[in-house]
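Researcher: Structure for this, please.
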Amino acid sequence: MRQGKALRCAFAGSGDFALPALQALLQADHRPVLVLTRPDRPAGRGLKARETQIALMARQAGLALLKPASLRETAIQDALREARLDVLITAAYGLLLPPQVLQLPRWGCINLHASLLPRWRGAAPIARTLLAGDAETGVSIFQMEEGLDTGPLLAQGRIAVAEHETSGSLEEKLAQLAASLLLDVLDRMAADTITPRPQDSAGACYAAKLNTGEAVIDWHQDARSIQRLVRAMTPRPRARFLLGERMILVHEASLVSWPQTAAPGAIVQVDASSVVVACGTDALCLQTIQPAGGRPMSAAAFWRGLREQPSGLIAVNHAERRLS
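Model: Predicted structure, token format:
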């Protein structure tokens, strides 16, 4: 049974990872008195300004909403101070919280982070988890301080990483886990039964933001590493390679055991549903691809539609030609 009174909380989020947490708060005792999200951004073919899904959810719930470009603005800090917050919750927010904001709520500010801290501190923990081949990951809720994801832990939840998990599917699972953990943390805060636990920085590693340069496939790598790259870069920015002068994005690919008789990057098999490409070790079966500027399609169908069938290597090695 829950004990203690409802907390006065604010919620700051911008990405999809934050949506289940806000939805959970709307149905719980600790309903936010204020929601913050990033400013509207141009999107779509018309590049019209578009609100975040967090903003839309807050409006539908009738919550006070702010879209500051920075939390260093005096007016924003005054609004947070006037809200008399017990705690400020952040999840995939995207803006830096200055020291003045960190100190405003009674319980300070807490963050929902998609890794088992101290492993994968930083901007892209989910993709880095997949790239590294981690068998397990999870969610950490911690008390924020000025260091990057270094604050004391309030709760952690663990899940196994499935064999064919992508960044998109893993994010959905972790977002649901984070929402459940958050309600428990807030209940324990309200009951004054929570004890922050310092992180052990011995196992800390940094999850740098992804860039498209990293998404370029190097066929000299082993097939397992390349498949991890495909999964980590899905749904964005997508693993990719060059076919002549044309960029090809990879949506779906699987491992194939293959004798090392072909050069890395060579097409070794084309059948009704896939295209198999030799790698440094074994091979990668391309199932769904997307030509730049086109739509996702079967790799085999794309291959059959080419006027000239490529011979030899399908893509230059990015060590020979850098792609951006």
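Researcher: Any notable elements?
Model: DSSP finds eight helices and 17 strands in the chain. The first strand starts at residue 9 and ends at 13.
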